[in-house]
Give the backbone structure.
Amino acid sequence: MDLNYTPEQEAFRAEVRQFLDDNLPDDIRERVQKRLRPDKAMTERWQKILFDKAWGASTWPKEFGGNGWDPIQQIIFEEECALAGTPRQLDFGLRMVAPVIMTFGNDEQKQRFLPGILSGEDWWCQGYSEPGAGSDLASLRTSAKREGDHYIVNGQKTWTTLGQHADWIFCLVRTSTEGKPQQGISFLLIDMNTPGIEVRPIIMLDGEHEINEVYFDNVQVPAENLVGEENKGWTYAKFLLGHERTGLANVGQWKAIMKRLKEVARQEQDGQRPLIENTRFRDRLAQLDMELRALELTVLRVLTDKRGPGPQASILKIRGTEIGQQLFEMLMEAGGQDAIAHIPAALELDYNGPRVGSFDTTPAAGDYFNMRKLSIFGGSNEIQRNIIAQLVLGL
Amino acid sequence: MNFDLTEEQQMLNDSLRRFVTNEYGFEKRGQIIGSGAGIDRAIWANFAEMGLLGFTFPEDYDGLGGNAIDTMVVMENFGRGLVVEPYLATVVLAGGLIRDAGNDAQKADILPGIASGERLLALAHYEPGARYHLSHVQTIAHKDGDHFLISGQKTAVLHGGQANQLIVSARTSGAVNDESGLSLFLVDRRAKGVKVDEFATHDGHRTAEVNFSNVRVSADNLIGTIDDAYPVIEKAVDLGIAALCSEAVGAMEAMNAGTLEYIKTRKQFGVPIGKFQVLQHRMADMFIQTEQARTMAILAASEADSDDRASRREAISMAKTLVGQAARYVGQEGVQLHGGMGVTDEMFTAHLFKRLTLINLMFGDADHHLAQVSDALLAITA
């Protein structure tokens, strides 16, 4: 048992840090560190920079053009990226659909789809939830009927994050209504430019456009875009959710936010003293700091476990999202009354108008509102508790 | 970075697990608690034979040269079976302190005796009114020729009534809350002027209130440097806290296993109550809390032997806080999920709950250690 990083791992960290110092453009760093409005071009630019360094996919094996890193290297990379202020890489392609294609797709699909995901040329989104199928995902009704060489897709997906930018969507569709609901689901890759697809924005409570509804009206999808076998999609979906949950712990990013929160607590004034000297605030900060440390070490414990993550990953999703939400809540509270002003224009880099409070306060309440999504998406935290109860505890 | 036990630690873990299951059952434990001695000497001798009592002592003193990770493995299993023998008091606290701060003669005199099971020691440090503050010491040791005269009152002396010798902290200079000016002395429990009031604890262990009235000890019995005992006490307490954290994890694991078994078999409304989602989610939360506590107990054990004071103290306080909070949560929920059975003396559940509750109260509760971590945030410059 040794909780220290090895000299090789420390050297790797130094190499990553140096690369980020040299290659992360200042305007991107500023945008991310000030938590300004995310932007498609910024994400694409950053993915291209990583791709050119052959660091495009930290979780992929080398044979698909990935970095071939072990879990500890992936964690170090994520942590350094978050501290430096890089944009998040797009999970939908890199961490969600790609592992499914690698594991269950055929060679043609691997050759056709993986390079675009790696270079960032193709923007992917996720077509899982429907208006009537949220936590009960298997009750989804968007149908795909086979006609010759095509599937004809009809129905509606919702909560489609960043779908407004997407070139492709990976969808769970119903190909059979026989047997249990889980048995008639297939995993289909759909070009977002196909006639019959309509994307409508859903404005979130922070006033921002992040999620969408996607409508399918007799959309023709080539049958070759089916991943794996027809009616086996549920298996692939569950595989994917396992991947998603481990990533949802988000430790690297939370550590960067925690570091910022501690700085903000020193800068913000509470009468004649810095906020950090307010015992009630500081005790809550300390509690959260400890919980984050526990999460960080638990992630490392799960990822270095030779038996693999398994359903224990649900713990990480629950704790990771709870801690993330509290971080943003405390950032908002650190701003006090300064946080009440809503100034959407100030979320752009070139904003020079009046503001209330500091750069940290401007996005704080909006972020807090937005982050309520964390405990809801990716399988709500209540669903995660069901998973623990059923798969770990056997209840 | 790895979280694996060594092969030897894995073997130790397996044999202790078997021991607790086969030879330290609920009934056996009840007999030990109910006996006058409060501990089972045969079992203690058995521990000595297994090498447990000198595990973390140097090989020169009949030990096995182990570390706090080994102690973690031992204590987690003791927590699982709620072992009441004075391992924490004698081996971890007193033994660890002599190992780290004793001179060669003291180590040669004491450590083999602990390792063989013949000698029991206890640490007499906390005082009334000190609460959890380690520097709050009013007991005085006056120099009297080549002797010291010790007077004062000690509280929460774990297993003090059973110990052959006490390690007593006393002020040789400075004021009541000063970190400097503390010294440690080895005192025979039967020495003239030592008065021991022994009490059972709620969780089946023993504690003592000890009064020292002009107790005369020779200067050979000074442990470490005069006036400079504070860091030694702190380190011993940190070893104790790490051990308690692991014990709590073992007890939480036992609580979860027992509760899970119960809600799978207890039927109401025609079904096992574990079918109810409201109970499933609470059981899931008990599991989450336990896993986090386990992580923190590992952190505490990894840092407990460290001489990097700031980093060690931070890890220990973080661990004790989160483990204390988890212990309270898991303990209370375990009882609640057992319904009426949970509040009866005949259920192991209730005994686990009591131990988990008392672990939080010892060596600083969750609030105390949260404050340590919180105040350390002030010291860090942005």
About this structure: Residues 279-303 of chain A form the longest helix (25 residues). The longest strand of chain A covers residues 209-222.
